[in-house]
Design a protein that fits this description.
The protein folds into two domains: 129 residues, Aspartate Aminotransferase, domain 1 (Alpha-Beta Complex); 226 residues, Aspartate Aminotransferase, domain 2, CATH 3.40.640.10. It has 14 helices and 15 strands. The strands form four sheets. Strands 2-10-9-8-7-3-4 form a seven-stranded mixed β-sheet, sandwiched between helices. A hairpin with a 2-residue loop joins β5 and β6. It starts with 15 loop residues before the first helix and ends in a 7-residue tail after the last helix.
């Protein structure tokens, strides 16, 4: 019913993933596995909804008028995450990073300390610094192929640096952790104790592998909901980032007022019409497509796991619990990051996201996007194997 093996030509479609290669000085025949969008068509139900509006032919100022949009969100979060939202909590925005920046300005002042947990999605650091706030890094602990939060340092830094805001990545990009309720409670209790606001980026919440479960931070305790802003979007889940729609949930009336006041100062008002239509259609009718996709991604993950185990044991897979982004540890080769990156680009001719871009702890790593047809993934893995099979390693 859904053909995830279909290879769709994306060159010449204004795709950052494909059409930016020449401007970045990449080889013409490089395979891109870097930016986090997928090489799959969005669900047919979404395409149908968009096609119907295109055929209507009028794209005037738009917003959700009836309850159908909220009901689609409510049912999705209630059924998949056991989280019951309310209509007044929902604020639409063009994207999660936009929402994070808006929240930073709404909840902190220039010079205030904002904490992130690197290695982490690099726009977190940019969002803090670009808004003249002070970045505080609580680096994740990496041991035996698994990442954990350093809770002792987490609380110490909050106290010593007078941290006002914590940006949580849940599930975590790029290390693939799906934080447990116990971990989130540990972090949440510390934030409540010291009056720290939390922005919870949960954009990857729908990509969870068997044996794991996503927990909405704000849904764990009323006091967490009272200090947090939950940022979500259908863009990763249904491959819709170009339609620019995000849903932000804020239960605390004061925080919601501060956020909406800052949102108005940006000049943003009506959301993207096509984004809203796509979001509603996806949440109403896209569950079966998503379940099939997750199974396909699990098979892609098995393919990369098998190749590394059999052919390239010096490259360690940080086993992902969620997301379609695989975090690979190349550190056994002992290569400087710049040399590793050039080898991948010009010898293997695969374009990954270099680990240092994700901050502290990213050295020696590369992020690999596996959300592509299996034949494309196999081609990329073959290039990786041929380029690294004769390279010695350092233990």
């Amino acid at each position: 019913m859904y053909n995830f093996d279909e290879i769709i030509e994306r060159h010449g479609t204004n795709s950052i993933k494909y059409d930016l290669a020449a401007k970045k000085g990449m080889p013409e025949d490089i395979l891109p596995f870097w930016v986090a969008d997928m090489d799959f068509k969005s669900p047919p139900e979404v395409l149908k909804a968009l096609s119907q509006r295109v055929n209507h032919g009028i794209f005037g100022y738009s917003d959700t008028i009836d309850e159908s949009y909220f009901n689609a969100l409510y049912n999705w979060y209630s059924e998949r995450f056991d989280w019951q939202i309310r209509p007044e909590w929902v604020i639409k925005s063009p994207g999660v990073v936009f929402s994070i920046c808006t929240a930073i300005r709404a909840l902190t002042k220039p010079g205030d300390a904002v904490m992130i947990q690197q290695p982490v999605y690099y726009p977190f650091e940019n969002s803090v610094k670009d808004n003249d706030r002070r970045i505080i890094v609580n680096q994740l602990l990496y041991s035996d192929g698994r990442y954990e939060m350093n809770f002792d340092e987490f609380e110490r830094l909050i106290v010593e640096e007078n941290v006002k805001l914590f940006i949580l990545c849940n599930p975590h990009n790029p290390v693939g952790r799906v934080w447990t309720s116990e971990e989130l409670i540990h972090a949440g209790d510390i934030c409540v104790r010291h009056g720290v606001y939390v922005i919870s980026d949960e954009i990857h919440q729908d990509f969870i592998y068997p044996g794991y479960r996503h927990t909405v931070f704000a849904g764990l305790k009323p006091e967490y909901s009272d200090i947090s802003i939950t940022c979500t979007a259908p863009s990763k889940t249904f491959n819709l980032p170009g339609l620019q729609i995000s849903n932000v949930f804020i239960s605390n009336a004061k925080i919601r007022r501060l956020y909406t006041e800052e949102l108005r100062r940006t000049g943003y008002s009506q959301p993207n019409l096509m984004g809203m239509l796509a979001c509603q259609a996806a949440y109403e009718k896209g569950a079966q497509w998503l379940d099939k996709l997750i199974a396909y991604l699990a098979d892609n993950l098995a393919l990369i796991r098998e190749l590394l185990d059999d052919e390239l044991p010096s490259i360690s897979l940080v086993e992902p619990e969620g997301t379609y982004l695989v975090w690979l540890d190349f550190s056994r080769y002992g290569l400087p990051d710049r040399e590793l990156e050039q080898l991948l680009i010009h010898k293997a001719k695969i374009w990954l996201s270099p680990g240092p871009a994700f901050g502290a702890g990213g050295q020696g790593f590369q992020r690999f996007n596996i959300a592509c047809p299996r034949a494309v993934l196999q081609q990329g893995l073959n290039r990786l194997k041929e380029s690294f099979k004769d390279i010695g390693r350092k233990i």
